[in-house]
Amino acid sequence: MATLSASRGSTGGVPVSAQGGRRLDLNLDADELATCVACGLCLPHCPTYRVSGEEGQSPRGRIALMREVAKGAAITDEFVDHMDSCIQCRGCETACPADVPFGKLMEETREAMVSGARYQPLWRRLGYRLLGAPRTLRTLSALAALAQRLGLLPRRLNLPHLPLRRGKVPLGSPTGGGEAVWLFTGCVMDAWMRDTHVSTARVIALAGGEVMLPGPRAACCGALAIHAGLRGDAKRLALRTMDAMPGQAPILVNSAGCGAALKAYGELIATPSAEAFSRRVKDIHSWLAPRMSLLPATVAAEPEVVAVQDPCHLRHVQRAHLPVREVLSQFAVVVELDDEGLCCGAGGAYSLLRPAEAAAVRERKLAAIRRSGAAKVVSANPGCALHLAAAGVNVTHPLDLLAKRLEETP
Amino acid sequence: MKRAAKAAGVGLPSALIADLRAATSPDRVRVDPLERAIYGRDASLCVGDEPAVVVFPVTPEEVAEVVRACNRHGRPFVARGSGTGLAGNAVPLGEPVVIVTTKLNKVLSVDAGERVAWVQPGVLNLDLSRHTAALGLHYAPDPSSQQVCTIGGNVATNSGGPHCLAYGVTNAHVLALKVVLPDGSLAQLGGLDPEPAGYDLRGVFVGSEGMLGIATEIAVRLMPDPPEVATLLLDFMDVSAGASTVSDVIAGGLVPAAMEMMDANAVKVVEAFVHAGYPTDAAAVLLVECEGLPAGVKASVDLITETGQRNGARTVRLAADDVERDLLWKGRKAAFGAVARLAPDYYLHDTVVPRTRLVEVLEKVYEISARHNLTVVNVFHAGDGNLHPLLAFDSRTEGVMDSVHAAGEEIVLASLAAGGVLSGEHGIGIEKRDLMGHLFSQADLAAQDRLRACFDPDGLANPSKVLPSPSGCGDLRPQVKVPAGAWV
């Protein structure tokens, strides 16, 4: 079995050396912290507990640690490590019968660690900033793609095959006069998986939508910044993103992580306009499912068998994973994985920052995929797709699969 | 490691720690003060000491080496699985070494023909059934925490579960055990033969709450999946009508696979979590499951429906498919956690009363709770009279803990007075240790203590649990006469 602790210290995952006797004000809401009754039902739904079997790597244990520190216990390296090792998949929230707001508690704890425990060193912060600078990101991505072709990138980075060129996302609709919608393009996804945006825009147009792109101001949703505890950075990115997509038109998102973040602007920015913005956000599948009948018939003689991997931020956070099946079932045979939506280990930047744990968690997902018997997997989140592809899984975005099928349909 | 030891401060048993590191590996021996603190609790309210060290063995040999190291240093030890115990069974007392078994989580072998599996103690109960699902087999005891509790913990507490009504509790499903005895030596108890020779030490070990050693390999019986399953939800406008239905069904000659009852408060919190269509205006609901051959299941469903209606059931709902069935059971099994919707803390009790006196004891439970101004939620295994009154409260309220303890003790005593026993399935642990004298005589307790001493003369294995210390137990005298036939 995988042992997380064996990788401690070797992953660079612990950026801070807390001094003994150091206190940290976590600024957590006492009532929210009190909601956990320690029943333990979250444990098997926590990917890091699943591979470690350690209380400190479980939601219940992490809350117990927060409580100890909130009561005045000194923080230790182990505390920081147990907080940093959380993938923030929020599978525990779906499992929790008491509705403990674990994701919020973890984000706030990390925010406190940034200011009080020297969590997030400069190089990490610069990395997160880069996501909001599309031109630099594209240039670096192109350079990395070139280096990859030349065999200069170390394999242990486990990067996917990076594209050298990116296609153009078609705007508007072929007939004109459709329902105006924004397509949020994001940072890494736009740099590395532009083809999926192209597919998405084509499908939207065929389903009667008229695509508008937000441009470089909406460069990054800020999800990774908020997960890292960099709330200030996240707010700046959120305000820019809101600014880039004015009006009333729905905001369609084909990345589960970004969609979850955009839907949470109401809480992050806490203004009526941010709340209104969040209400306009829809995962692409939720928008598309009731419009599938508008698409040309895609029924193939032999529909493809695909296993659905639910991105955590679609299933556990947005709780909008069922429309993916509604969309897929019209042209493919959908196979469910038997792991109750357990995280795949990608977790945004997690797979880069804690590769050993991310790979151990992924092993369970790979086993579930093998058990399903499906040769192809669909995933509606770029992070999950890249993480699974790096392990050799044949993984596609549902919209890519649909666009391809529509192309093949005479 | 130096770093961790420094952070932990002085006073750590360094020679013991060195031995434990040698017995396992340095990164699996933890002395960080915060890490130790979180291993000081389980899912109960029982408060113990912080463990001196937390250790994570990955093989049975490592478990034995750790126990031997504890013996050399005269240090007590406590085995712990997922920490879902509800009586403080694995809460450390006396600054012991906590031996966490969760990394021993392999299903070692499955013999589909003989319907036997050998598993390590850290295998999760539900994972075992998932592992054997493709063979059409499952592990029958299904505690409400089955998705997270370990088989090792089930063995320690002789766990029950809804379906134990028909199939018996853990003891009936454990065939053999390979154990590390408290002195670090190895032994096998029981065997796969139908009737192993000698004393049934396996039966002694199951339910011994970690006081007789640590099971490192467990042979469990697997059951064939039933060809037909029917799940019924009956709802009643008063609790006694539900309880009478339970008695009448069993008196009618039928023992369903499971018969669970939830009262109004329970139904409300559960429905808010699972949205399974539980009737939130009912005074009580019965969740009944019948298994077997199709014709038998149909006859059972008819009998239960008729009995329910005769007792005034408002509706009888038959789950249409597996999805509906799973959702109903998810609600039942998450009931305790869902109580957090009422208050942030709960004290869950576990007593057994004769089925015929369920109504009377339930009324007493409501009366006791009302008198102490506490919210009570009742979710229980009605078919075998196993009550789980659950007191919901906010521990930050001044003086509430005193009320909770007083009410809890009154509930236990009321159950005993009705001919019941202290625990149906959670065990005694710390929680009921000092109530043992209410049920057992000095001679009974002394006999239990002598048995324990045969296995563990030095008292190192999970000390200060279950049996009251001799001084403490002198203060308590059985207040009730144990009636003939009580399930002691």
Can you offer a commentary on this structure?
Helix content of chain A is 47%, strand content 8%. Chain A has 410 residues and is an alpha/beta fold. Among the domains of chain A are: 116 residues, Alpha-helical ferredoxin (Fumarate Reductase Iron-sulfur Protein, Chain B, domain 2, Orthogonal Bundle), CATH 1.10.1060; 111 residues, Rossmann fold (3-Layer(aba) Sandwich), CATH 3.40.50. In chain A, helix 21 links the parallel strand 7 and strand 8. The N terminus of chain A is likely disordered. With 488 residues, chain B is of the alpha+beta class. Chain B folds into four domains: 99 residues, Uridine Diphospho-n-acetylenolpyruvylglucosamine Reductase, domain 2 (2-Layer Sandwich); 118 residues, 2-Layer Sandwich (Uridine Diphospho-n-acetylenolpyruvylglucosamine Reductase, domain 3); 110 residues, Alpha-Beta Plaits (2-Layer Sandwich); 147 residues, Alpha-Beta Plaits, CATH 3.30.70. Chain B contains 18 helices and 20 strands. In chain B, a hairpin with a 4-residue loop joins strand 5 and strand 6. The longest helix of chain B is centred in the C-terminal third of the chain and has 18 residues. Chains A and B meet through helix 3 and helix 4 of A and helix 1, helix 3, helix 5 and helix 13 of B.
What topology does this entry show?
The complex is a heterodimer of chains A (410) and B (488).
Chain A: H1 30-34, H2 47-52, H3 59-70, H4 77-84, H5 91-95, H6 102-116, H7 122-130, H8 134-149, E1 179-184, H9 188-192, H10 194-206, E2 209-212, H11 223-227, H12 231-244, E3 251-253, H13 256-263, H14 265-269, H15 272-280, E4 281-283, H16 284-288, E5 304-309, H17 312-317, H18 322-328, E6 332-336, H19 350-353, H20 355-372, E7 376-379, H21 382-389, E8 395-396, H22 398-408
Parallel strand pairs in A: 1-2, 1-3, 3-4, 5-6, 5-7, 7-8
Chain B: H1 2-8, H2 14-23, E1 29-30, H3 33-38, E2 53-55, H4 60-73, E3 77-80, E4 97-100, E5 107-111, E6 116-119, H5 125-132, E7 137-138, H6 151-157, H7 164-167, E8 174-180, E9 186-190, H8 201-205, E10 214-221, E11 223-224, E12 228-236, H9 239-251, E13 258-263, H10 264-274, E14 284-292, H11 294-310, E15 315-318, H12 322-333, H13 335-338, E16 345-348, E17 351-352, H14 358-371, E18 375-381, E19 386-387, E20 389-393, H15 400-417, H16 436-439, H17 442-455, H18 470-475
Parallel strand pairs in B: 2-4, 3-4
Antiparallel strand pairs in B: 1-2, 5-6, 6-10, 7-11, 8-9, 8-10, 12-14, 12-15, 13-14, 13-18, 16-20, 17-19, 18-20
